[in-house]
Design a protein that fits this description.
Strand content: 25-35%
Distance between the termini: 64 Å
Bound molecules: S-adenosyl-L-homocysteine
CATH superfamily of the largest domain: Vaccinia Virus protein VP39
Radius of gyration: 23 Å
CATH topology of the largest domain: Rossmann fold
Structural class: alpha/beta
CATH architecture of the largest domain: 3-Layer(aba) Sandwich
Number of strands: 20
Helix content: 25-40%
Number of helices: 11
Number of domains: 3
Length: about 400
């Protein structure tokens, strides 16, 4: 196996079990005598050693600022049952905290570094697991991962692979980046036309990983949606950036007087309508609108329309560190518009899923929005990502979702 030697003193973070080796920390790379190439290949397993020759761990090699993602610390190679063991352990955690139930068949099984598998996401929707690789190493291991998921997650009968948007786009990648790895559905036609449904806290959602965003659904808002249900009774609700209507269904079940769901994607809006019809066939108090958030808020304002409860769950405004300043301006702007439209005594649920914007910065942006509008605003809850999106304590970069629930006078 190829050995990566670190510069002196660069082993500290690895010894504290942080799983990334940055390219700047590497002194040299030693290839085996008979190695057929003159540099390590992307995705291959390498052994990382300190300058003094101490074995630190083994991980996936990749070209880029993170050169190695460590899979196992303190060993030279992976045990034969590596995938089984990691996937079983992750499943056991979800099971032991009561996430896997008859009325909750939707959960994240593997959350990258949070489940000690950097570069890998696995979401489970009833009988189907959707695997997403963020590194070439995980891409190359997709068959082994799928087999381990099939073996260790009793409800899973199909595995879909969806990595077209998440693999480094410059890399030379062999094999399909998207498609079924295992499926019980015999023909491609059936697979294309099948409707897949999954349950979250007793609500049914149609999940479309073929055409939808991410792996098909935003599982990370489950607990926060449940909180909306608690506050929704009798309220006029606006679910802005609704995607397939997660928050809307909880608000309807919580007894909202009226729910408006808004998203710029017509495909998402079509699914909101399908989901509302399936769960609340009698509902006549829900409306779904395909519109840009700023346009919608401006037109409502012009019409003098206000709401009792608004949910703002925009896409990541900052995908990189250098976009943070603009993102903060964006958060301030959209939050100011929403606060303006809240009736006295109303509530705003506001979120940011940009990893690059930390919770203090986000809170400051919302503070600036409140000050700009000049309303009296108090924080009722500070929200975050749920228990199936765990943060490895040695990898604080894994924290990304934050939210505030505001009481607006
Ligand atoms: N709250 C959702 C997840 C939201 S993801 C849930 O619980 O499932 C962010 C959504 O914002 C996406 O569906 C995307 O289509 C939508 N979006 C992106 N830009 C937008 C814009 N300018 N106006 C309205 N919606 C937008």
């Amino acid at each position: 196996m190829t050995t990566v030697y670190l510069k002196p003193h660069k082993e500290e973070s690895l010894k504290r079990m942080h799983p990334w080796v940055f390219s700047g920390a590497i002194a040299r790379v030693a290839l085996d005598k008979n190695y057929p190439f003159n540099e390590p290949q992307e995705g291959e397993l390498v052994c990382v050693q300190s300058a003094a020759g101490e074995i630190l761990g083994v991980g996936h090699w990749q070209v880029g600022s993170i050169a190695v993602r460590i899979l196992a610390f303190g060993v030279e190679s992976l045990p034969v049952d590596f995938w089984e063991e990691r996937i079983r352990a992750a499943y056991r955690v979800r099971e032991s905290i009561g996430l896997i139930r008859q009325d909750n068949t939707t959960f994240r099984l593997i959350h990258g570094e949070g489940d000690f598998l950097p570069g890998l996401i696995v979401d489970v929707y009833a009988e189907t697991a959707v695997i997403q690789a963020h590194s070439i190493g995980m891409h190359l291991c997709r068959e082994a991962i799928a087999a381990a998921v099939m073996e260790n997650v009793p409800q899973v009968k199909n595995v879909y692979y969806k990595s077209d948007d998440t693999l480094p786009f410059k890399a030379r990648i062999e094999g399909e980046k998207t498609g079924w790895l295992t499926t019980s559905l015999p023909s491609p036609q059936e697979r294309e036309n099948a409707e897949y449904w999954s349950e979250e806290n007793g609500l049914l959602f149609r999940i479309d990983w073929l055409r939808g965003q991410k792996t098909g659904f935003f599982i990370d808002q489950r607990e926060n949606r449940a909180l909306v249900e608690r506050y929704a009774a009798g309220k006029d609700v606006l679910n802005m950036f609704c995607y397939t209507g997660g928050f809307s269904l909880y608000a309807l079940r919580g007894g909202a007087k009226n729910v408006d769901s808004v998203d710029v994607s017509q495909k998402a809006i079509d699914l909101v309508n399908v989901n509302v019809a399936r769960n609340f066939p009698q509902a006549d108090n829900h409306k779904a609108v395909a519109a840009d958030a700023f346009d919608y808020l401006a037109s409502m304002r012009e019409a003098g329309h206000t709401y009792d409860l608004i949910i703002l769950d925009p896409p990541a405004f900052a995908k990189h560190r250098d976009a943070v300043k603009n993102a903060l301006r964006g958060y301030q702007r959209i939050n100011a518009k929403a606060i303006e439209m809240i009736r006295p005594g109303g509530i705003l649920f506001t979120f940011s899923c940009s990893q690059a914007v930390d919770k203090e910065a986000f809170r400051l942006a919302v503070f600036s929005a409140a000050a700009q509008v000049g309303r009296k605003v108090r924080i009722l809850h500070q929200l975050h990502q749920p228990q199936d999106h765990p943060i490895n304590i040695y990898h604080p970069e894994g924290e990304y979702l934050k939210g505030l629930v505001l009481f607006v006078e």
